[in-house]
């Protein structure tokens, strides 16, 4: 009698937990995915029709007009080019530079290893701040030049720590035997360490390329010319056109556009999609490495 | 020959290392130093040289076009005037916003990934588990530009949230969430949580996967339920990780970001959105008050360095105790 009561309690508790678990995971997944879906739906729907509202799950009037519109804007296309170049140039450089540094600092025999390590790690905790940094870039003559996206981002101490913790897991004997074979450190790094560290390198490639792709603040801060604006900064400007007019309820700008098939909002959503789609396409394929890389960093840190 | 070199390398830790030996060791490590060189140049140019620029927070720096250092050194020394000015004007409001945004973020973004990781771990179907996890860190990878716009759009007068609230008859008029300061901290906290939950959960999932499976098996033999196993095995095993993450979060309490505030904020809510970094940006860069901006930045750097140093020490202590 007593026993059966206890068992009943248990099953109720478990049932409740199972229910909670499923609902919670469902909730998080929906909250993380749905906004993207909603934007997608608006971006492929007729602009005027979207103004009627109620566009939640499926496009009512399918059209690609919004995308045609956004790809006709020269400044938008140019911004894609800028962002693409900084991503393609900046990512290999930061990965190379940071992984070399990680290898050097992982060598126990390095003269002054403690000093060098501290020198780099200290910068994670203390900095000159935004203004002196800005003035330094000015002194170096980097302001308003494309290289301002590349040089200052070439070193990332956090990436270095992630790579270094991974390198600690590579047996020392591999390096030693290579040294006995007469290989120098450059060769050891290029032929042995770099290929073995592939999971963490891929993680850093993902991080670095996404941070280049998503960058807008450095573009606003350090550049003035129209043709140096990054994709995300142009996106900020495109989106702000809406915010200033849209938040006060009925917007004149929207009404003015009613004449044409597309509206400002639908074009904006198309622009957001263009900036998002590359990320959605890339990260599921790299996530195998990415999870592994973070876990190693997390366990060791 | 080679092995002799090896032993020689090991002997370099001997107390009486001659200069000649040091030179030899340096020569032997020339490739290592060559590989460190680019990073060294970067760290000096972009980290240490800017630190010397902190001096302008003690002077009245005005660029006269004679070069940065000439201008800086010839500028009038004002001592702590900029700091005093900050403390007597906007310090209170900026500090309040920073702390409130940070603590409110912590309130949501700290427990959420723990619960998410535990729930995810209980899912037996690998495909579902993977799909949910992949979904959860999509927000981490998109830019704040897009994330902020989503929040602004969804919370706008004709946005989804207002539609839902009106459908549920919670309110009968459009609530302009982004126009009222009282909502801003909460929105920011939720946005931060939304963006980071998947990423933070990875760390807890790693910790859970490190738990000895025999404990669960033993508990099962003893007739423990699922909830009991979570409460008495998973949670205590996660505690060290949780403590370290909490300490790290407290250490970074003044770093609440600036992108999200700049992108989600507007003039109507600036009394609630302004934090140290946005304040520094506005005064130091946009308004060109270099010395003042530097002073505010320096204050923040010093205080947050102290926070990090204290919590790091604590976490190291705690980590040692908790491991053995």
Supply database-style keywords.
heterodimer, A: 301 residues, MetI-like fold, B: 324 residues, mainly alpha, two-stranded antiparallel sheet, 18 helices, 2 strands, flat
Per DSSP, the total helix count of chain B is: 18
**Gyration radius over CA of chain A:** 26 Å
- What share of residues of chain B is helical? over 70%
Tally of separate helices of chain A: 14
Question: How are helices and strands ordered from N to C of chain A?
Answer: HHHHHHHHHHHHHH
CATH topology of the largest domain in chain B: MetI-like fold
**What is the level-2 CATH architecture name of chain A?**
Orthogonal Bundle
Cα-atom Rg of chain B, whole angstroms? Answer: 27 Å
Give the helix/strand class of chain A.
Answer: mainly alpha
Ends distance of chain B: 44 Å
Helical residues, percent of chain A: over 70%
How does the overall form of chain B come out from the CA principal axes? flat
Number of strands of chain A: 0
- Secondary-structure element order of chain B, N to C: HHHEHEHHHHHHHHHHHHHH
User: Could you name the ranges of chain B where pLDDT drops below 50 across 5 or more consecutive residues?
Assistant: 1-12
What is the CATH architecture descriptor of the largest domain in chain B? Orthogonal Bundle
Biggest sheet details of chain B: 2 strands, antiparallel
Largest sheet of chain A: none
Characterize the structure shown.
The complex is a heterodimer of chains A (301) and B (324). Chain A has 301 residues and is mainly α. Chain A has 14 helices and no strands. Chain A is globular. Chain B folds into 2 domains: 19-79, no CATH class; 84-323, Orthogonal Bundle (MetI-like fold). Helices cover 74% and strands 1% of the residues of chain B. Chain B is an all-alpha fold and 324 residues long. A two-stranded antiparallel sheet of chain B has the order 1-2. Chains A and B meet through helix 1, helix 4, helix 5, helix 6 and helix 9 of A and helix 2, helix 3, helix 7, helix 8 and helix 9 of B.
């Amino acid at each position: 009698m007593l026993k059966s009561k206890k068992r009943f309690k248990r099953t109720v508790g478990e049932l409740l937990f199972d229910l909670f678990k499923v609902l919670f995971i469902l909730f998080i997944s929906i909250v993380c995915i749905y906004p993207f879906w909603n934007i997608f739906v608006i971006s492929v729907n007729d602009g005027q029709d979207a103004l009627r509202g109620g566009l939640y799950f499926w496009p009512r009037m399918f059209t690609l007009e919004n995308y045609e519109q956004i790809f006709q804007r020269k400044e938008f296309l140019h911004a894609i080019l800028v962002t693409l170049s900084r991503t393609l140039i900046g990512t290999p450089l930061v990965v190379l530079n940071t992984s070399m540094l990680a290898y050097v600092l992982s060598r126990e025999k390095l003269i002054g290893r403690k000093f060098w390590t501290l020198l780099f790690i200290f910068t994670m905790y203390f900095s000159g701040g935004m203004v002196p940094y800005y003035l330094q870039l000015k002194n170096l003559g980097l302001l308003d030049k494309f290289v301002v996206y590349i040089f200052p981002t070439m070193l990332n101490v956090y990436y270095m720590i992630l790579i270094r913790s991974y390198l600690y897991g590579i047996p020392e004997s591999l390096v030693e035997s290579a040294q006995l074979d007469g290989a120098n450190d450059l060769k050891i790094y290029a032929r042995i360490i770099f290929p073995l560290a592939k999971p963490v390198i891929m993680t850093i490639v993902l991080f670095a390329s996404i941070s280049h792709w998503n960058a807008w603040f450095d573009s606003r801060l350090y550049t003035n010319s129209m043709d140096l604006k990054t994709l995300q900064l142009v996106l900020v400007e495109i989106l702000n056109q809406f915010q200033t007019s849209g938040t006060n309820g009925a917007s004149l700008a929207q009404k003015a556009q009613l004449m044409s098939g597309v509206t400002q909002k639908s074009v904006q959503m198309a622009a957001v999609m263009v900036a998002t789609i590359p990320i959605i396409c890339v990260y599921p394929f790299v996530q195998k490495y990415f999870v592994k890389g973070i876990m190693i960093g997390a366990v060791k840190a | 020959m080679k092995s002799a070199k090896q032993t020689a390398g090991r002997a370099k830790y001997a107390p009486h290392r001659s200069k000649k030996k040091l030179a030899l060791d340096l020569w032997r490590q020339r490739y290592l130093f060559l590989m460190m060189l680019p990073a060294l140049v970067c760290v000096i140019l972009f980290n240490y040289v800017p630190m010397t620029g902190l001096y302008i927070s003690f002077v009245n720096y005005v660029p006269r076009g004679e070069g940065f250092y000439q201008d800086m050194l010839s500028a009038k020394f004002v001592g702590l005037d900029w700091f005093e000015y900050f403390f007597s004007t906007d310090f209170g409001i900026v500090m309040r916003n920073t702390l409130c945004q940070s603590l409110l973020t912590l309130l949501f973004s700290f427990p959420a990934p723990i619960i998410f990781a535990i729930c995810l771990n209980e899912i037996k179907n690998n495909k579902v588990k993977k799909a949910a996890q992949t979904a959860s860190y999509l927000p981490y990878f998109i830019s704040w530009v897009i994330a902020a716009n989503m929040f602004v759009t969804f919370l706008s007068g004709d946005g989804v949230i207002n539609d839902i609230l009106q459908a549920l008859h919670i309110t009968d008029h459009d609530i302009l969430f982004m126009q009222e300061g009282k909502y801003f901290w909460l929105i920011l906290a939720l946005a931060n949580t939304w963006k980071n939950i998947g990423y933070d959960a990875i760390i807890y999932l790693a910790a859970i996967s490190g738990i000895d499976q025999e404990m669960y098996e033993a508990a099962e033999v003893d007739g423990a339920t699922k909830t009991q196993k979570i409460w008495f095995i998973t949670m205590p095993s996660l505690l060290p990780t949780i403590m370290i993450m909490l300490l790290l979060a407290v250490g970074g309490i003044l770093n609440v970001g600036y992108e999200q505030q700049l992108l989600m904020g507007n003039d109507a809510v600036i009394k609630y959105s302004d934090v140290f970094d946005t304040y520094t940006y506005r005064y130091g860069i946009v308004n060109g008050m270099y010395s003042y901006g530097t002073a505010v930045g320096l204050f923040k750097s010093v205080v947050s360095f102290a926070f990090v140093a204290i919590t790091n020490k604590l976490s190291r202590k705690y980590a040692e105790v908790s491991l053995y």
